[in-house]
């Protein structure tokens, strides 16, 4: 598991940890049942507060991405297909907003954009 903290980012450190672990879960880098580093070890490795790491793990657990067994540690939860689908839909919506904006800048109508999509779909 790789986590990189960007001190120049406007995002709080716990959110950076949350987001990076979440992305690694969805990409399959972190498999169901895989153990996460202990809160103390991760804090030490990242040179951050244990409180910050604890908050990131708490957020991950409350969102259903991980579960914690007292005395054993934190582990990657089973992939919730509904949660995964929602995540992909959110990502797709972001891409579609970018496509819509680019199409506007190019002066493409919705019909022309759909025609372009259909052409690309036919090539696959």
Describe the structure.
This protein has 124 residues and is mainly α. It has helices at 13-27, 39-46, 50-62, 81-106, 110-123; strands spanning 66-69, 73-76. Strand 1 (66-69) and strand 2 (73-76) form a beta hairpin. It is elongated, with a radius of gyration of 19 Å. The mean pLDDT is 92.
Per-chain topology:
Blueprint: H1 13-27, H2 39-46, H3 50-62, E1 66-69, E2 73-76, H4 81-106, H5 110-123
Antiparallel strand pairs: 1-2
Helix pairs in contact: 1-3, 2-3
What portion of residues is helical? 55-70%
Rg calculated over all Cα atoms: 19 Å
- Total DSSP helices: 5
Strand content: 5-15%
Distance between the termini: 34 Å
**Sheet bearing the most strands, described?**
2 strands, antiparallel
Order of helices and strands: HHHEEHH
């Amino acid at each position: 598991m790789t986590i990189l903290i960007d001190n120049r980012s406007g995002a709080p450190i716990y959110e950076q940890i949350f987001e990076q672990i979440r992305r690694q879960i969805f990409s399959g880098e972190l498999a169901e049942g895989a153990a996460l580093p202990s809160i103390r070890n991760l804090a030490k490795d990242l040179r951050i507060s244990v409180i910050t790491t604890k908050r990131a793990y708490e957020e991950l657990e409350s969102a259903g991405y991980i579960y914690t067994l007292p005395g054993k540690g934190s582990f990657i939860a089973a992939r919730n297909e509904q949660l995964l689908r929602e995540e992909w839909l959110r990502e797709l919506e972001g891409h579609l907003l970018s496509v819509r904006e680019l199409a506007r800048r190019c002066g493409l109508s919705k019909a022309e954009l759909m025609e372009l999509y259909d052409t690309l779909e036919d090539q696959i």
